[in-house]
TrEMBL record:
<dbReference type="InterPro" id="IPR036594">
    <property type="entry name" value="Meth_synthase_dom"/>
</dbReference>
<dbReference type="GO" id="GO:0046872">
    <property type="term" value="F:metal ion binding"/>
</dbReference>
<dbReference type="InterPro" id="IPR003759">
    <property type="entry name" value="Cbl-bd_cap"/>
</dbReference>
<dbReference type="Pfam" id="PF02310">
    <property type="entry name" value="B12-binding"/>
</dbReference>
<keyword id="KW-0479">Metal-binding</keyword>
<dbReference type="InterPro" id="IPR036724">
    <property type="entry name" value="Cobalamin-bd_sf"/>
</dbReference>
<dbReference type="GO" id="GO:0050667">
    <property type="term" value="P:homocysteine metabolic process"/>
</dbReference>
<dbReference type="GO" id="GO:0005829">
    <property type="term" value="C:cytosol"/>
</dbReference>
<dbReference type="InterPro" id="IPR006158">
    <property type="entry name" value="Cobalamin-bd"/>
</dbReference>
<protein>
    <submittedName>
        <fullName>Cobalamin-dependent protein</fullName>
    </submittedName>
</protein>
<dbReference type="GO" id="GO:0046653">
    <property type="term" value="P:tetrahydrofolate metabolic process"/>
</dbReference>
<dbReference type="GO" id="GO:0031419">
    <property type="term" value="F:cobalamin binding"/>
</dbReference>
<dbReference type="InterPro" id="IPR050554">
    <property type="entry name" value="Met_Synthase/Corrinoid"/>
</dbReference>
<dbReference type="GO" id="GO:0008705">
    <property type="term" value="F:methionine synthase activity"/>
</dbReference>
<feature type="domain" description="B12-binding">
    <location>
        <begin position="110"/>
        <end position="234"/>
    </location>
</feature>
<dbReference type="Pfam" id="PF02607">
    <property type="entry name" value="B12-binding_2"/>
</dbReference>
<keyword id="KW-0170">Cobalt</keyword>
Length: 361
């Protein structure tokens, strides 16, 4: 397998990164592809150098610019439409790298693997980047894209006799679905390597779910090269086998009463903030959506028993609201409502308490 750096390739991609960002910002696909092709270098090179250049352009040029797109959206500097256009251009840039490096790919594949997004996950570009790096490193990759139903994922892994299944997820609310995919794939005998922001700092949630974890595509390649861990005999298992705290049923209770919890929290927020009476339909819908997300993240924090997950989400939501001129103190009213509604449940109460403290500081 190949990888590593190339002495002919620029040591810093800072300048092309800025130019790619400007092209994405201007929704200019032609300019973006030209930047990518320029960074790949026009001079003929060895296959190994071409592969190394391709990998760096994918991971050090396209990926960080795409992440910057998310930061700009969060800061309310670009619209949702610009973010969508930018993502479509990034996909086109990945395709340009694939075209330019196709002839340099290693001939005989090292093995066949499946790369897929968890059921419900629409962030496909991270999985695509991982797939293309693995291809450049000699793996045959079946890239299944976004939102792959677990039963179809397992069936495809079986059909292709995959060496491993690589699962990508970006949003934490999908952790229960990710857990189901992990245990289903392992139950069918496939090693699983998980990755993406949803799996938490240093992949802590992947490890809770007994999957291997890699922070990036080269990390996944290293695990594959070393022979990924085969699932043990007790691979088919209910969620509480990995997460014994689920035995207290608090997760199930919050999930089942989600609609009622959110409805009451919305009513309490509206009572605490009389100005919400003058909200238009769009603003009312966004407020209801935000509260719905809060309850869903609360349930997810219960699932993995991690108060920090909920606190992180609230800090993120506070930043999003502040950037849009909405006072984040309305989050405290929503939390107080949930504390009142859930005070008899010790674990959920603890999570709300930690988050409230973090939000007040
Ligand atoms: C583009 C985008 C979208 C697009 C995705 C389209 C597509 N084709 O991918 C759309 C519009 C669908 C979308 C929807 C949503 N999004 Co969005 N999105 C983004 C954005 C801007 C870029 C995602 C991306 O491509 N990142 C670039 C890649 C390179 O970064 P990466 O994820 O770190 O991936 C690397 C590593 O993590 C690793 N890796 C990833 N997967 C794997 C797998 C394996 C096996 C391995 C080894 C490694 C690995 O390797 C990758 C390459 O280096 C991010 C911002 C961001 N910072 O990422 C937000 C972001 C992820 N989205 C966010 C949100 C909130 C949402 C929505 C909930 C919005 C909404 N209200 O509807 C929905 C959720 C939809 C869903 N259920 O999936 C938030 C998540 C915040 C949070 N706390 O969870 C982010 C962070 C935006 C932000 N700044 O706040 N989004």
């Amino acid at each position: 397998m190949t990888g590593g750096t190339d002495s002919d390739f620029p040591t810093s991609l800072a300048e092309p990164r800025e130019r790619l960002w400007q092209a994405l910002h201007a929704c200019d696909e032609t300019r973006a592809v030209a930047v990518v092709r320029g960074a790949l270098g026009a001079t003929p090179s060895t296959a190994e150098r071409t592969r190394a250049a391709g990998e760096r352009v994918l991971l050090e040029l396209i990926a960080p610019v795409q992440a910057r797109l998310g930061e700009a959206w969060a800061a309310n500097d670009i619209t949702v439409a610009q973010e969508h256009a930018g993502t479509a251009i990034s996909e086109r840039c990945v395709a340009a790298v694939v075209d330019s490096t196709a002839s340099a790919r290693p001939g005989t594949p090292a093995g066949r693997v499946v790369v897929a997004c968890v059921d419900g996950e629409w962030h496909a570009l991270p999985a695509r980047l991982v797939s293309e790096v693995l291809r450049l490193r000699g793996w045959r990759v079946d890239y299944l894209g976004a939102h792959v139903p677990t039963e179809h994922l397992v069936a495809h892994a079986r059909y292709t006799r995959a060496r491993a299944v690589l699962l990508s997820s970006s949003v934490e609310v999908l952790l229960p679905a990710a857990h189901n995919a992990i245990s289903s794939c392992q139950g069918a005998g496939f090693p699983v390597i998980a990755g993406g922001a949803a799996f938490g700092p240093q992949g802590r949630y992947a490890r809770l779910m007994r999957a291997e974890w890699a922070g990036d595509a080269p990390g996944a390649a290293a695990l594959l090269d070393g022979g990924p861990r085969r699932p043990g005999a007790r691979a088919v298992r209910p969620p509480e086998a990995d997460l014994p705290h689920l035995g207290d049923e608090e997760y199930t209770m919050v999930l089942r009463s989600k609609r009622q919890l959110a409805k009451q929290a919305l009513a309490d927020v509206q009572e605490s903030f009389p100005e919400t009476r003058w909200y238009n339909r769009y603003q009312n819908e966004r407020t209801a959506e935000d509260i719905d997300h809060i309850v869903t993240y609360l349930a997810t924090a219960l699932y993995v028993d991690c108060p920090e997950l909920f606190a992180r989400f609230l800090a993120w939501t506070a930043d999003i609201l502040t950037a849009r001129g909405v006072p984040p103190r309305c989050l405290l009213a929503a939390l107080d409502s949930l504390v009142g509604q859930l005070k008899d449940f010790p674990r959920v109460f603890g999570i709300l308490h930690v988050a409230r403290g973090a939000l007040e500081t």
